[in-house]
């Protein structure tokens, strides 16, 4: 048995953060999992054990796994399913997760390695693509809306990563359905492929800016960035 004993709410938050590559807020939780409130019985025991940190200096609060949290989540996946999980589907899913945990134990793979390897593979594919595709392929229009959003951002921002108004992005997408763009933006945000922030000076917002904003984490966000420091 693990030294850490978790309640179902604690497991929910712990594994939510695992799925989100270690960090997230209630806005992201709502999009990914359908809940937008982190109760004290989910948060406080994990904070006390040093498994997560909570940044209360931002709104909504930002939750992040510590190194100990990653290890605890890895150990928790090897434990029997919680008795409080009476739903049949939840029990089946937990059994599958335990199978994965057993395989990880045999191969020496750790939970954090799975996500790190995934990110490295994506980067490697992007580098390989840049080096090997011919001009016609490089100029081909991206297939998915998410790819079009990223490509449009890069065309608008140029070589220097910067914050681009969503109004300009939507215009560049040439009439793409508003709701579909919202959905893709949220998916890209969850996957950490883009950043979305509100305009700091709300007085500068035009009607177009307000109409183009996307609602995330309890606030409207008006600007998109990729790897903006």
- The CATH architecture of the largest domain can be given as Orthogonal Bundle
General shape: elongated
Strand order of the largest sheet: 1-3-2
Helix content: 40-55%
Structural commentary:
With 229 residues, the chain is mostly helical. The chain folds into two domains: 8-113, Arc Repressor Mutant, subunit A (Orthogonal Bundle), CATH 1.10.10; 145-225. Helices cover 54% and strands 11% of the residues. The chain has eleven helices and eight strands. The protein has helices spanning 8-19, 26-33, 40-48, 67-76, 88-107, 111-132, 135-138, 145-157, 166-172, 178-190, 207-212, and strands spanning 23-25, 52-55, 62-65, 164-165, 195-197, 214-216, 219-221, 223-225. The strands form three sheets. Strands 1-3-2 form a three-stranded antiparallel beta sheet. Strands 4-8-5 form a three-stranded antiparallel beta sheet. The longest helix has 22 residues, at 111-132. The N and C termini lie far apart (42 Å).
